[in-house]
Specification:
The chain has one domain. It is globular and about 40 Å long. The chain is about 70% helix and about 5% strand. The relative contact order is 0.17. By secondary structure, the chain is mainly alpha-helical.
Length: about 120
């Protein structure tokens, strides 16, 4: 398979960035427990979450592989929620009020990803 930055099926970097950015904007718009300060902050949030997901998230995915198999992949939402919560602690201007709102934001990002991949 040829790698492309814009490929939806290959999980291109730019595509994943856009999906995360759109998911964060939707979460900010529709969830009272998720907020961010403006478009420029959203860009920073998407970059930081991508970096956290590529490093800490990948390590957590590797460690939690047996649990993900047992839950048929639903544990991925827990890993994504933990990465989102860590991002909200590291980035000023990005607030997620607890674990369940972070899970909700992870679901929104997953739905955006599924819709755009279809």
């Amino acid at each position: 398979m040829e790698y492309s930055l814009f490929s939806l099926e290959g999980g291109g970097l730019i595509t994943n960035f856009i999906i995360t950015l759109l998911g964060i904007f939707l979460g900010d718009r529709f969830m009272k427990s998720v907020s961010m300060d403006g478009f420029q902050n959203g860009l920073v949030i998407a970059v930081v979450l991508a970096l956290l997901n590529a490093t800490i998230g990948a390590a957590m995915d590797f460690i939690s592989t047996p649990i993900r198999w047992l839950t048929l992949g639903l544990f991925n939402l827990v890993v994504d929620a933990l990465v989102i919560m860590l991002g909200s602690k590291l980035i000023s201007g990005f607030r997620v009020d607890g674990f369940w709102p972070a899970v909700g934001l992870a679901v929104i990002i997953a739905v955006v990803s599924m819709v755009l991949a279809a």
